[in-house]
Amino acid sequence: MLCCPAFLVDLPPAPSDVIIASAIGQRNVTLQWTKPADVSANQIIEYYVIKYQLPGNTETQEAAVVSSDLSSFEVTNLLPGTTHTVWVVSRNAAGDSPNSNNVSVITEPSGECQGVDGHLVHCSSFRDYFATTHAFHHHI
Question: How far is CA 49 from CA 9, 24, 61, 73, in A?
Answer without folding.
Answer: 18, 19, 10, 10
